[in-house]
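Form 7-S
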Amino acid sequence: MVLLTGFCGTSSELLIKKAGCESIILPNNKIADSQLLIEKISLHRYDYVFSFGQKPNIKNKLYIETTARNMAARIQTNFEYDKLRSIFEANELSVQISDNAGTSFCNALYWNGLNYIYEKGIGTKMIFIHIPFCKNITDSEWFFDRILTAVKNMQMRQ
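Output:
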C-alpha cells in the first residue's frame, strides 16, 4: 500500500491530484503537515510513503532526498533510493541524489515522518522527492506521468 503527499498550492499538489491513489494534500503548516502524515501512517500500514515538495532553481529534474535534519541530528531514509533512481532514469527522468531536504516545510515533514517510523519500529519506507516549480517543467503532463509510472513500478518491485 502506498501513500503520496504533496503541499497545497505547489507543483507537488498537481502531481498528487493526478495520481488517483491514496494521498494527502498538506496545508503548508509545519505542525499540521506532520500531524496529518503521522495520523495516516498510524492508521494504515503503508509499504511506501512518497512525499513530494517543490524546489526552486531546478528544471525538469528530480531530487531524491536521502536525509532529514534537526539541527545537528540526522535521520537517513530506509528507502531503497538507488532502486528508485534507476526506475526514474528508466522512465527518462533526470535525477539527482541529495542529502539536504532543505530547512523548512519539506525537511520538517521528512524528519517527523522518518522519526515516527523509526520510533514505532514499523516497516514503512519513506522517501522525499523534490520536483521543480510548474514554470520549470517543460511538459508537466509528460513529467508527472513519468513520475507516477515510476512510483507504480517501485511498488510492484517490493
